[in-house]
Amino acid sequence: MPLVSSRELLLAAQQGQYAVGAFNAENLEMAQAIVEGADALHAPVLLQTTAGTLRYASPALFAGFVSRLARDVKVPVALHLDHGDSLALAERCVREGYTSVMIDGSLLPFSGNITLTRQVVAMACDVPVEAELGKVGGKEDDHDAKPQYTDPAEAAEFVEKTGISSFAVAIGTAHGIYKGEPKLDIALLEQIRKTVSIPLVLHGTSGVPYDQVRACIERGICKVNYATELRITFSNAVKAYLAAKPDQFDPKKYLGAGRDAVRARVMELIRLCGSDGKA
């Protein structure tokens, strides 16, 4: 089917008390794996690209092949800009056919974050916009950030003044690889849920224990992001294939091994989110 808006997917997840898996793709093979995995489990899915990925391959290129992949399956697929770093990039993605965008103004002062986010919401018109308040720590593309937890009172004001469709919370997750087991502030998430009615998003979920992910979904998280975990899965599979077959020179063979590994991992994470069978 054609690409769909993330708005309806997340509202359905909120109503059904599950989460939609949101998976970052870096290339064609990862995009194939994500869409095929969702289709196999009859699950809605968001396929995401970061600003850094779009410096590697353009929004037009990703929108072209992801929309083609989506048309070949019967499950709803949304194409989402993850951690958009400017109004210009968000506008470019919307123009090229992205059906969901995130603007990340979390490094700006509170008022600056509101101003930038409102500009993106106005530009996007009917395309849903996600934004973040507080800072999810760790490394995202070329940026390192120290964590700063979301303030529930500020969250309510931020959502009201910006008109966003979904809200990314900072409750102790981090981008990249965790050095120890993360401990999420579940009580803080409960407070945020009481002040914010729109769907909530969990970033930096790679490496978070399953029980904590489930606890977050039970308390209102409707979209769960995975990026680093899929990059590692893809790279390890390619490395293992080439180690076993060092004379192999056909990219389709070793990149296909990466695709197969990511597909299996995506299916496991879709089941964790509880979105299997929800398409």
Q: Quick summary of this structure?
A:
Helix content is 49%, strand content 18%. It is α/β, with parallel strands linked by helices.
Identify low-pLDDT runs.
Answer: none
* Tally of contiguous helical segments: 11
CATH class: Alpha Beta
Number of E strands:
11
If strands are numbered along the chain, what order do they take across the biggest sheet?
Answer: 1-2-3-4-5-8-10-11
Indicate the radius of gyration in whole angstroms.
18 Å
Overall pLDDT metric: 94
Give a quick account of the main beta sheet: strands, pairing sense, barrel closure.
Answer: 8 strands, parallel, barrel
State the fourth-level CATH superfamily: Aldolase class I
**Looking at CATH, which topology would you report?**
TIM Barrel
Spatial separation of the terminal alpha carbons: 12 Å
Task: Tell me which CATH architecture applies here.
Answer: Alpha-Beta Barrel
Large-scale geometry = globular
Helix proportion:
40-55%
Strand fraction: 15-25%
Please state the structural category.
alpha/beta
Describe the structure.
The chain is α/β, with parallel strands linked by helices and 279 residues long. It contains 11 helices and 11 strands. The protein has an 8-stranded parallel beta barrel, surrounded by 9 helices. A 3-stranded mixed β-sheet has the order 7-6-9, with no helix packed on it. Strand 3, helix 5 (87-96) and strand 4 form a beta-alpha-beta unit.
